């Protein structure tokens, strides 16, 4: 006498497989919905005096003109390309300087252009910590990073580092190299904290 075999879907294993498949379908639908939703990038809280640099991401908006509202990356040559007016020198200038120039040049095409420029992401502010630190290398830092913070980002000093002979090397365009001494041992004890200077873009912290 032959024994009837229950359908696969009716079995316990089958019901579990169907449940897993349904859950997978729901997760896939949710992920597609998340991918379809636009991602809003909040502007960086860059100070008005902040000087833009290569790889910084900007949003340039012209009121009531979606075609003239764009997100732009400052190129390595310090320029951005904007519709109608072409190339705009951006590196080494403030956001207000760039905004004023774009608005002025757009007056050839628009009667009273209302232009805004925002920094979406600061990516040009890089410093270098080299020598006897635990993680030497290049670091992307905020524009208020001081020497102690930079050393912390690099994992601190190694046991054989000359902590009171650290130097900050700064290369200013068109001028000579400037070297600032830094005595970590004194700063660690709360002494001579004025030597804990705020680093500038491109500064090198050298730990012998």
| Quantity of strands, as a count | 10
Give a quick account of the main beta sheet: strands, pairing sense, barrel closure.
5 strands, mixed
Output the number of helix runs: 4
CATH superfamily of the largest domain: Outer membrane lipoprotein wza domain like
CATH architecture of the largest domain: Roll
Widest sheet, order of strands = 7-6-10-8-9
| Amount of beta strand | 25-35%
Q: What sequence of helices (H) and strands (E) makes up the elements? A: HEEEEHEEEHEEHE
Radius of gyration: 28 Å
Report on this structure.
It is built from four helices and ten strands; from the N terminus they run αββββαβββαββαβ. By secondary structure, it is an alpha+beta fold. The chain folds into three domains: 11-38; 57-121, wza like fold (2-Layer Sandwich); 126-207, Outer membrane lipoprotein wza fold like, CATH 3.10.560. Strands 7-6-10-8-9 form a five-stranded mixed β-sheet, with helices on one face. A three-stranded antiparallel β-sheet has the order 2-1-5, with helices on one face. The longest helix has 25 residues, at 12-36. The chain is elongated and about 65 Å long. The model is unreliable at 1-10 and 12-42 (pLDDT under 50).
Describe this protein with a few key phrases.
Outer membrane lipoprotein wza fold like, 24% helix, five-stranded mixed beta sheet, elongated, alpha+beta, wza like fold, 208 residues, 10 strands
Map the helices and strands.
Layout: H1 12-36, E1 57-62, E2 65-73, E3 79-82, E4 86-89, H2 95-106, E5 115-121, E6 126-131, E7 137-140, H3 147-153, E8 166-171, E9 177-182, H4 184-188, E10 204-207
Parallel strand pairs: 6-10
Antiparallel strand pairs: 1-2, 1-5, 3-4, 6-7, 8-9, 8-10
């Amino acid at each position: 006498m032959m024994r009837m075999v229950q359908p696969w879907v009716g079995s316990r294993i089958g019901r579990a497989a169907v449940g897993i498949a349904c859950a997978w379908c729901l997760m896939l639908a949710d992920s597609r919905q998340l991918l379809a939703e636009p991602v809003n990038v909040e502007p960086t809280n860059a100070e008005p005096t902040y000087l833009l640099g290569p790889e910084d991401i900007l949003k340039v908006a012209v009121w009531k003109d979606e075609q003239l509202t764009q997100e732009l990356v400052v190129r390595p040559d310090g320029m951005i390309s904007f519709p109608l007016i072409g190339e705009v020198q951006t590196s080494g200038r403030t956001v207000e300087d760039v905004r004023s120039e774009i608005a002025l040049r757009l007056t050839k095409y628009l009667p009273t252009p209302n232009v805004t420029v925002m920094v979406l992401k600061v990516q040009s502010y890089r410093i270098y910590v080299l020598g006897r630190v635990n993680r030497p290398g290049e670091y992307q830092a905020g524009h208020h990073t001081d020497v102690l913070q930079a050393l912390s980002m690099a994992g601190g000093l190694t046991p054989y580092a000359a902590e009171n002979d650290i130097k900050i090397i700064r290369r200013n365009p068109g001028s000579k190299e400037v070297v600032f001494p830094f005595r970590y041992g004194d700063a660690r004890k709360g002494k001579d904290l004025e030597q804990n200077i705020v680093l500038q873009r491109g500064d090198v912290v050298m730990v012998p």
